[in-house]
Amino acid sequence: MNRKNIRNRKKRKLNIRGKICLLVLILIIVSLVVTKNKKQTEITSLNENKHIIEVTDTYSIKIDIPDSKDENIEKEIKEWVDARKTEFMQSIDNELLKEKQMQYELVINYEQSEYNNIQSTHLVSYMYTGGNHYLRDDQSYYYDLVNNKEVVLTDFLKDKNNFKKIAQLSYFEVMEESEKRKSNLDENWVKDGTEANIENYENFEFNDEGLNVLFPPYQVAPWSEGEIKVVIPYDKIKDIINFEVPENKENEVIKIERNTRDVENLKGKKVIAVTFDDGPSNKTEYLLQELEKEDWKVTFFVLGSRAKEYPELIKKMYKDGHEIGSHTYSHLNLKNLSDYEIYKEINNTNKIIEETIGIKPQYLRPPYGNTNDHIKEIADMTTILWNVDTLDWKSRNEDAVYKEIMKNASDGSIILLHDLYQTSIDGAIKAMKELEKQGYEFVTIDEMFKIKGEEIDKNKSYFNL
Ligand SMILES: [Zn+2]
After folding, report:
1. Terminal Cα distance for the chain, rounded
2. Fold topology of 155-246
3. Ion ligand 1, residue ranges at CB < 5 A
4. How much distance in Å is there from the Cα of 111 to the middle of ligand 1?
5. Residue 243 pLDDT > 80, yes or no?
6. What tens digit of pLDDT does each residue of 373-425 get?
């Protein structure tokens, strides 16, 4: 190879390299121009009114606006969206933007659904104007498709005073969620954010599960917790809302054939309600066998913690026609507990019993008989105390139990016993045999209410009937 050839090859090599460099340069310029154009072009898209997209090199706006079946709501939505946009534009400082090259953002989305002839529209606006995170705004509208009018949460209540009940339940559900998340929310913050005023309940929805309440960030918890959504099941609010609640499908799964009886035949007879607290225990099965032999019905005020351990006994009690009441979950003095702790003691027990037999207990015996109006309001059950205390836990003596019953029992009596001790069971059965001879019938609390024709009042404490 000679010098000339070598030089030519070098030259060709340079030429190819040069062309590649030029091409890359052109590509870079073209892409820069395209990107810049794209950023600077303001695009107002598709449907001018319903979808707004604006992108510049300093900010972007993306808004989706829902249709509503109501003109007024449409107008309100438009006003709300415009207000968000104005707020956003005012927050932007163009000079600062240029320096920092920040991409400011406004995004508005919506969700719309229809349930029970109510159209719900929920809008959320996310605004980024610097700082650590987006600013969020929530706004909802509800339209009654039957009566053609805009409605709010209190329109679904039979009585406006029931709003307090919704607020209380929401508070408990949020605290429960806090526990689930292990986030230890501030109780006072939660209380403030769930208080019964309509501003706190702007975002809700009814569905098959119940009343869903949405608390946007900051309402009940810090931003880091995000939104908190709770469901208040219908069985807790069915008495206070003004529409037919959907059938609970879960309950249909558990169907226990119950050996109940017609209390009509017992009207006018002397009746006694024998009640057993603190169980079930390893003595309960024996008691159930004895009761079955004699065809006597009693009431068991069970502990949630024990009901969980003995589901088969709970099922047998129910199947045999006995009444199952609640004695709370862990037998604490309710007067020493916070509102949420009271709620948990009651609610956890009710859940366990419902999971076992398909229905919730309606009668509550507070541990030590300690209750007050506030506890009753939280529990929302009927309070059953007693007028014959056998002191069986103290005596642990069959004869002493027998004597206490014989001395004090009369028509309408509610007798307190514990199915934890053999002596209690034996003493009770002995007394019941004797009382039966005197013409007494043994009935459950529920049967006794029916036999005595007494209307149940959840604000009262019943010692006898
Ligand atoms: Zn007890």
Report:
1. 123
2. Actin; Chain A, domain 4 (3.90.640)
3. 277-278
4. 49
5. yes
6. 999 999 999 999 999 999 999 999 999 999 999 999 999 999 999 999 999 99
Assigned superfamily of 263-462:
Glycoside hydrolase/deacetylase (3.20.20.370)
pLDDT of residue 20: 53
The residues spanned by each domain of the chain are 51-149, 155-246, 263-462
Separation of CA 302 and ligand 1 centre (Å): 9
Tokens of 255: 């169907």
Model-level pTM? 0.76
Q: Which residues are known catalytic residues?
A: 277, 418
Is it true that domain 51-149 has CATH number 2.30.30.40? no
